[in-house]
Amino acid sequence: MDNYFNRHEVSNSDLGWLLDQLNPKERFIDPTQAFADGNLLDAMITETEKVDYFKMTRENVSYKKSTFENTIKMKQSFWRDPLCRDLMKGADSQKISIEHGAKMSFNGMDFELDRRCKWDIWREDLGWGADIKSTSAETQAQFETAFQFFKYPRSRAWYMDIEKAERDVVIGISKKNHKVFKIFINRESEIYKQGKREYLELAYKWYLLFGNGRP
Predict the structure, then answer these.
(1) Distance between CA 7 and CA 153 in Å, rounded?
(2) pLDDT digits over 51-96, tens only?
(3) What is the DSSP string of 106-174?
(4) Of 13, 18, 15, which is closest to residue 39 (Cα–Cα)?
């Protein structure tokens, strides 16, 4: 859906934007290229029609030959992994989930929010999904550190709660050595509990500032 980012429901990215506004800090790394690289990997796996292998583009975005060829190797690592292959069987890729009037509570204050998310992988039959991340990590431990640094717990709890999913998995694919890393989450995981705490605080601040949707 091309107008996904123009919808009025609040997304996890909106919460991330709010966090940056409330806690301004100097950025040492411009995330623009990282997002573009990650979007290329996502498209190669879940939206193959958007990738032109001859022009080395994803829709209207062009990539350096080295980046494009490296992303192909990352994609190949994904498809060699048994779990990744199994998850894609019957998966709904880039599924949009929307929840209107989601009831939330922060520090005893009840409020409602219209919210949305877009899954890389959703398995309706399993009732859970997955997120694909390109990463500079070269080990599982490094990926787990990056997972915290980039606030992924918040995003995964947000996604899980919109679809009432009991489980979730984040799949990291290294840009450096093409290894595949996985972080498994369920509702008893500290990752989920941490993420929910983090998103509830930001969601409440969003509600106070903007109401139950995007302005």
Answers:
(1) 24
(2) 999 999 999 899 999 999 999 999 999 999 999 999 999 999 999 9
(3) ETTEEEEEEEEEE-SEEETTTTEEEEEEEES--SHHHHHHHHHHTTHHHHHHHHHHHHT-SEEEEEEEE
(4) 13
Structure tokens at 177: 């050595």
Q: Which long-range contacts (CB under 8 A, 24 or more apart) does 15-21 make?
A: 15/154, 15/158, 15/199, 15/202, 15/203, 15/206, 16/151, 16/154, 18/202, 18/205, 18/206, 18/209, 19/151, 19/202
For tokens 């717990």, the residue is 153
> Which residues make Cβ contacts (< 8 Å) with residue 75, sequence separation at least 6?
41, 44, 45
- 3-state SS track over 56-124: CEECCEECCHHHHHHHHHHHHHHHHCHHHHHHHCCCEECCEEEEEEEEEEECCEEEEEEEEEECCEEEC
Overall pTM surpassing 0.90 (yes/no): yes
Q: Evaluate whether 9 touches 116 at the Cβ level (below 8 Å).
A: yes
